[in-house]
Amino acid sequence: MNVRDRLTGGRAVVAAREEDSTPDTTEIRRLAASAGYDVVGELTQRRQEDRRYNLGAGKARELAAVVADTEATAVVFDGALTPGQYTDLLEVLPPETTLVDRYRLVLEIFAAGAGSSTATTQVRLATLRYELPRVRRASEESVLNRATEKGSPVLDVERRIDDLERRLAEATDAAADRRSRRREEGFDLVALAGYTNAGKSTLLRRLADDLAVDADDDGTEDHDGTAAADVTETATVADRLFETLETTTRRATLGGRRVLLTDTVGLVTDLPHDLVRSFSATIDEIGASDIVLAVVDGSANDAQIRRRLETTVDVLAGDASGAVLPVVTKVDRLDEASRDAAVAVVAETLAAADVDVDTHDPVAVSAHDGEGVQALREAVVDALPTAEARLTVPNSSETQAFVSWLHDRGDAAVAYDAEAVTVEFAGAPSVVDEAKRRAADLRER
Ligand SMILES: Nc1nc2c(ncn2[C@@H]2O[C@H](COP(=O)(O)OP(=O)(O)OP(=O)(O)O)[C@@H](O)[C@H]2O)c(=O)[nH]1
Ligand SMILES: [Mg+2]
Q: What's the CATH number of domain 173-383, 3.20.20.30, 1.10.8.100, 3.40.50.300, 1.10.10.10?
C-alpha cells in the first residue's frame, strides 16, 4: 500500500478567490485529496485581493461559519497567503483550525510521499524556504528574538537551508556524473516532463524496455526496480495528482538507439519559483536531456491544455537545452475532431511561448492502447542529435563483434566483400566518434 493511502489530513473546507472569474475548485480539491484531506465544503469568491485576509472580511467570517458547521479541522486555501494574511485569517477561524495554502498543500503531498533521501532533502529544503519569510515575520514582531541574535530562529532556518543546499548539491553532482558516464557509454538522454497527472509515467512504461536503470550510484543496473535505495516504486501510475515524486530512469531502444528515458516529477500551476527550484533533480534531468517530451493530457479542455502547457514551458524555458517534442496523450478518450483540436492548441501554445530551443510538431498518442506510439518513437529518433559515418574495416575474425556493437547502438547498413566490410552508420555523435576509433583500431591490426 502506498504510504499516502494511510494519510488522513482530516476534514477540510476549500476556499478560493479570483479577481475576474468565479474560481474553479476542481484542481485544489484533487490536490487536497492527494494530501489526504476529506473535502467537506467549499467557499469561493470573485473579488480583488483583500490585503488583510486575501478573501474579503465578510467572506472570511463566512468561511469560519462553514468550518464550524461542517466540523472541519482544516481550511485549504487555493493560492498564496502572505505571512500576514495567514496569521490574520487564522485568527478569524475557529480555534485549532489548520490553515494550509496551495504551496503548503503541495509540500505536504511531497513530504508524505518522498521515499529516497534526495526527495526528502528536496522537500525539507522547499519547506524551509517556504517558512523562512514567515519565521522572519514572527521574529520581527518579537523584540526578544532580535536581542538574542545568536539563538535567532531566523538564523537557525537559514543555517538549515544552507546545509540542505549543500547536501542536495552533492546528490545532484552524483546524478550529473552518472549522466555523463551514460552519455559516454553511448546513451541518448530523453526526459518526460509535464503537468501532474498528464500521463508521463504511463507513457514511460509504454516506451521503455524492461530494465530499470540508474537505481544506484555505481553504474550497475537494477533489474527489478526495488533493490536499490534510490528507487522505491518505479514509475507507478495512478489517477492522482503528484503520483510520481522522484525521477526514475528506464532504458528504451528506439530505432536501434539506446536511450535512457527519465520520468520527472509533475508540475502544477502557481507554485513559486523557489519551490520548483527545490526539486532540482527534476530540473537537472530536464536540463541535461537531448530531448524533452512535453507530455500533455489531450482529454483536458482547451483552456486547461493551454494553462498546463504554459506551466510546463515556463520550466523548460529556463532549463531545457535539448529539443522539445510535445506529446498529446490519452487520445483514446477523444474522437478525431477533438484530437485534432487538442493537437492544434498544443502547437499554437508552444509557438506562442518564449522558448529558445528547437520545438517539434506535436505527436498524438494513447499510452493505453498504443496508438501513435510507433510514430512517437520515430519522431524521437528524428529529433535526436545524429551523426553519420561510412566505416570501412578489414573482413577479419573481429569484424563481426564490431558490427554487432554498431547494431546495438544505432542504424547500421552493412555491405560485405571478400576483403572489407563497409558500414553506413548513423547514431549519437559520441557513439559515431567511438565507432570511428574502433574502426581505426581494427584497420591497424
Ligand atoms: N485513457 C487514458 N488514460 C491514461 C493514459 N495515460 C495515462 N492515463 C491515466 O492517467 C492517469 C495519470 O497517469 P500517470 O502516468 O500516473 O500520470 P503522470 O503524468 O505520471 O502523473 P504524476 O506522476 O502525478 O505527475 C492514470 O489514471 C492513467 O491510467 C492514456 O493514454 N489513456
Ligand atoms: Mg508519474
A: 3.40.50.300
Q: What percent of the chain has pLDDT over 70?
A: 89
Cross-strand pairs, 324: 292, 359
Spacing, Cα 252 to ligand 2 middle (Å): 17
Kindly report, as residue ranges, where domains of CATH 3.40.50.11060 are found in the chain: 3-110
Task: Judge if the beta carbon of residue 372 lies within 6 A of ligand 1.
Answer: no
Confidence check: pLDDT of 386 > 60: yes
Question: Which pLDDT tens digit goes with each residue over 119-161?
Answer: 888 889 988 988 888 888 877 776 555 555 556 788 899 999 9
Here the cell at position 61 is 467570517
Q: Whose CA is nearest to atom 27 of ligand 1?
A: 239
Determine how many CB atoms are found less than 10 A away from the CB of residue 349: 21
The backbone torsions φ and ψ at residue 36, rounded to the nearest 5 degrees and listed phi first, read 95, 10
pLDDT in tens, 219-250: 333 333 333 333 334 577 888 888 887 788 89
- The CATH code of the domain at 3-110 is 3.40.50.11060
Domain 387-444 grouped into CATH 3.30.1370:
yes
* Nearest atom of ligand 1 to the alpha carbon of 196: 25
Output the CA torsion sign for 332, 335, 338, 341.
Answer: positive
Mutation probe of ligand 1 site: the residue of 30, 109, 197, 297 with most atoms within 8 A of C-beta:
197
